[in-house]
């Protein structure tokens, strides 16, 4: 390969100045000047063959430590949100209402976080043990990060399960010498809230054949009250489509009274008479709860990463990597809402007399005497504390291994490791027990019809006794081992030497998810929990070839076999990938890839506990078999069972990418890639009505007794658990440009543009509904663009970043059944553009400072009511406002 082409030089310059180049490499690969000898072989995400080439058949972007620093963010997940690699749906640690508080994830191409594989130094990380199988990026200390590589292509043939929509590979520092300390502080410039405090310490030393690296990361973020932001300060946006997010539960509350006596019946629901008439709707007293919530919870994180390398010889190295992280988040939600029986309250009779007619009151009294009356009150217990929880995520990881070279051509690696992630949710206050509250109401310790102050010692004791010590603990463990060998063979083809790699991977994954008994029994007002546990083993074998068939043309092939087994089931998947690059001349190259992939069933989906219940539905099959007309077929409570399904199969995918890389003039490079991704066998569930309406299609999901689904015991039921049902596909174009220009005596400018244009995203709401294009609908913009401009001259640097998200439309009414047409026009959601700026000054060789402002123009997130309050998509946008930060960096 001619390493001195204009294209290679352009890519090299981009990398040297920290650009997110279209080609993939580490900065160290270009330490040599032109003509100084053979370019060092490098590792490329998406391939196990080290190579001297700068480009591969799959598009990969590289972001180095300088790129991350220029954005001013403090976490890996936040940085990825600043690139167009992250689509809607990723978790963010700033989310207000989340079952996985304190965690952050990435969602490539909008398929969901679990379809993007996240690696640390090429190895898997443990997934979250509560709610969903995704990798929490907040496990990773920023102090240890050298660069982040994003492969925008499927890669199951290389990495196995989950590498469907893309791969994020986070590379840590190695062989570091010296000590570096970076401290920072940031705050909202108007409200002076949401303060961020960060400290990163990196230290490395080398003695003889041994080197050691230590990295410590501390980050703290203060909370932001919803009342202190324009968007989120209220749950009611009058005049905005679907802008009423107020809760029917408040104080004053609402009442449901039923009674039957003397051949008369009373059924009524009404709002408390003291409720403001403007808040009364359909018998409810609507409550604006926003003031009791936070837009951003309080959190802090500490992480430690250390690595040890010892050269046993000139060709063999032993190494170890050890990591610990702890993330704490205090969530605070509005007090518990619920409907409880208040008929035994000593205050109930007086309330009924005052609010029912004489005839209705007499009817209620007669019915109550015979046990045929009920008096329920729906309210929010705002006289109690907020529902607060301490969320603690801890990760332990240890890896040891050996790597080396065989001759001049082959490198190998063997490693074993174990990681454990523990997610804890511990109730701090406001978790109320239903039966205890009902008893306190009956005893007169609580007056449900008014605000209770709880001021005396006795009242405070009552308050304390009604709160439950709820807890939920999830553990995700992963043990693994692997061996890889690869390199360039002595087999010479017309275009160069044949490259080969192969290896074996073994992995055991296990998880447990346990909630306290009161929550599982439904005794906690406004609470929910689950139980589940399971494990699976994965053994994989893979091989990869790289063949330069003729000058300028290289073909790639990879195949992998994964054998997976778990309690109650197993699966085997063989995936492959084909690719090619062709260098037309020194300035232009084309690339293409095609591959298959898979996603193994989530452990949560396999082993979620089974639950039995009843659901309202119409049993048309029973009516038809018993001569009852469909119009007369009644709606009833039919038996249903839900939960995990050990018989799930892997989801399957196919993807291809076609691209052009060009350097039409000096110091400028551009890549344009067209991509397509299709996923089949997606795990989902059908509603009980859909199953009954299509019983011939799903006979295994309906278990009748004497033709009935109700009134014949628990053995008759509709199985609504998870199944392999749906399809999803997407197509798009990605554009990546980098340009380095000299301003003469005024310094140098580096320009960058990365744009994602989604052409379509086909989804179906369920297996019985058609595939419909979601592009342009809620959180599915056609365009997402990132623009950067970085200037440097001597000791001074400055830059500006623009993040653009295109407009969409919230179709609130959803799609018509059996059609892709929407039921309503919906709400136009504006486009969004955020401008960030920074300035840096190098004090001396060891010290520098950086100040910046994120969201300089103080843009609010665009209003989107599809998600309800706080009326914007928290996976796409932040709400920290105009945010100033300053950082100081010193090396010793």
TrEMBL record:
Stated family: Belongs to the TonB-dependent receptor family.
TonB-dependent receptor plug domain span: 55-167
One cellular component (GO) term of this entry: cell outer membrane
Listed transmembrane segments: none
Protein name stated in the entry: TonB-dependent receptor
Entry keyword set: Cell outer membrane, Membrane, Receptor, Signal, TonB box, Transmembrane, Transmembrane beta strand, Transport
Compartments, record wording: Cell outer membrane
Primary localization class, coarse: membrane
TonB-dependent receptor-like beta-barrel domain mapped to chain residues: 354-856
InterPro entries named among the record's database cross-references: Beta-barrel_TonB, Beta-barrel_TonB_sf, Plug_dom, Plug_dom_sf, TonB-dep_rcpt-like
Organism superkingdom: Bacteria
Topology with respect to the bilayer: Multi-pass membrane protein
Coiled coil: none
Signal peptide: 1-31
Record's keyword annotation contains Transmembrane: yes
């Amino acid at each position: 390969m001619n390493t001195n082409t204009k294209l290679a030089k352009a890519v090299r310059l981009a990398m040297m100045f920290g650009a997110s180049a279209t080609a993939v490499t580490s900065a160290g690969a270009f330490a040599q000047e032109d003509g100084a000898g053979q370019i060092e072989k490098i590792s490329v995400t998406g391939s196990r063959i080290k190579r001297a080439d700068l480009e591969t058949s799959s598009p990969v972007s590289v972001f180095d430590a300088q790129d991350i620093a220029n954005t001013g963010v403090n976490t890996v997940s936040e940085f990825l949100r600043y690139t167009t690699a992250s689509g809607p749906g990723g978790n963010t640690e700033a989310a207000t209402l989340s079952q996985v508080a304190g965690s952050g994830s990435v969602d490539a191409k909008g398929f969901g976080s679990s379809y993007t594989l996240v690696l640390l130094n090429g190895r898997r990380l443990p997934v979250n043990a509560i709610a969903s199988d995704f990798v929490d990026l907040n496990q990773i200390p920023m102090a240890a990060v050298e660069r982040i590589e994003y492969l925008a292509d499927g890669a199951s043939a290389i990495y196995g399960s989950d590498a469907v929509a893309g791969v994020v590979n986070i590379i840590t520092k190695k062989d570091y010498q010296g000590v570096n300390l970076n401290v920072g502080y940031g705050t909202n410039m108007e409200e002076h809230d949401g303060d961020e405090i960060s400290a990163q310490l990196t230290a490395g030393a080398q003695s003889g054949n041994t080197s050691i690296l230590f990295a410590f990361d501390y980050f703290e973020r203060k909370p932001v009250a919803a009342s202190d932001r324009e968007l989120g300060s209220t749950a009611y946006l009058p005049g905005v489509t679907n802008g009423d997010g107020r809760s029917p539960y408040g104080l004053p509350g609402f009442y449901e009274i039923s009674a039957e006596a003397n051949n008369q019946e009373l059924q009524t629901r009404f709002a408390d008479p003291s409720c403001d008439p403007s808040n009364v709707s359909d018998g409810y007293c609507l409550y604006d709860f926003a003031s009791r919530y936070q837009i951003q919870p309080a959190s802090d994180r500490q992480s430690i990463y250390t690595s040890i390398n010892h050269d046993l010889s000139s060709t063999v190295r032993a190494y170890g990597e050890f990591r610990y992280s702890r993330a704490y988040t205090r969530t605070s939600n509005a007090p518990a809402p619920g409907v409880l029986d208040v008929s035994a309250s000593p205050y109930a009779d007086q309330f009924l007399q005052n609010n029912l007619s004489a005839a209705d009151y007499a009817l209620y009294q007669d019915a109550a005497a015979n046990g045929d009356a009920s008096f329920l009150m729906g309210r929010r217990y705002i006289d109690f504390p907020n529902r607060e929880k301490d969320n603690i995520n801890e990760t332990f990881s240890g890896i040891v291994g050996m790597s080396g070279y065989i001759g001049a051509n082959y490198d190998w690696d063997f490693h074993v490791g174990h990681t454990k992630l523990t997610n804890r949710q511990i109730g701090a206050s406001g978790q109320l027990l239903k039966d205890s509250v009902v008893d306190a109401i009956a005893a007169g310790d609580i007056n449900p019809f008014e605000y209770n102050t709880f001021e005396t010692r006795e009242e405070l004791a009552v308050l304390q006794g009604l709160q439950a010590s709820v807890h939920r603990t999830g553990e995700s463990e992963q043990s693994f081992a692997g061996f890889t060998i690869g390199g360039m063979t002595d087999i010479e083809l017309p275009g160069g030497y044949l490259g080969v790699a192969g290896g074996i991977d073994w992995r055991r994954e296990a998880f447990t998810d346990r909630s306290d008994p009161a929550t599982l029994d439904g005794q906690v007002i406004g609470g929910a929990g689950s139980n589940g546990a399971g494990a699976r083993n994965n053994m994989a074998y893979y091989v990869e070839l790289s063949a330069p068939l003729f000058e300028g043309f290289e073909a790639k092939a990879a195949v992998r076999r994964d054998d997976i087994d778990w309690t109650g089931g197993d699966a085997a998947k063989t995936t492959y990938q084909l690719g090619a690059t062709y260098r037309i001349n020194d300035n232009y190259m084309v690339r293409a890839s095609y591959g298959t992939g898979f996603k193994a069933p989530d452990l949560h989906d396999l082993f979620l506990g089974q639950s039995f219940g009843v659901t309202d539905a119409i049993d048309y099959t029973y009516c038809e078999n018993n001569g009852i007309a469909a119009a007369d077929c009644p709606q009833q409570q039919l038996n249903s069972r839900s939960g995990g399904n050990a018989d799930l199969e892997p989801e399957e995918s196919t993807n291809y990418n076609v691209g052009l890389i060009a350097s039409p003039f000096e110091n400028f490079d551009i890549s344009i890639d067209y991509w397509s991704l299709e996923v089949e066998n997606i795990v989902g569930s059908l509603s009980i009505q859909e199953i009954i309406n299509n019983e011939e299609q799903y006979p295994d999901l309906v278990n009748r007794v004497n033709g009935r689904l109700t009134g014949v015991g628990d053995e008759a039921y509709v199985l609504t658990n998870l199944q392999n049902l749906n399809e999803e596909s997407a197509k798009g174009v990605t554009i990546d440009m980098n340009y380095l220009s000299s301003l003469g005596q005024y310094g140098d400018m580096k320009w960058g543009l990365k744009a994602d244009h989604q052409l379509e995203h086909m989804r179906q709401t369920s297996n019985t509904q058609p595939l419909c294009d979601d592009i342009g609908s809620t959180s599915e913009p056609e365009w997402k663009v990132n623009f950067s401009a970085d200037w440097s001259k001597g000791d001074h640097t400055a830059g500006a970043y623009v993040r653009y998200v295109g407009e969409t439309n919230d179709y609130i009414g959803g799609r018509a059944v059996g059609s892709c047409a929407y039921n309503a026009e919906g709400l136009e959601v504006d486009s969004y553009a955020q401008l960030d700026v920074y300035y840096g000054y190098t004090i001396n060789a060891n010290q520098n400072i950086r100040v910046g402002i994120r969201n300089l123009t103080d843009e609010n997130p665009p209003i989107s009511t599809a998600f309800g309050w706080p009326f914007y998509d928290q996976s796409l946008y932040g709400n920290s406002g105009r945010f100033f930060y300053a950082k100081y960096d010193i090396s010793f």
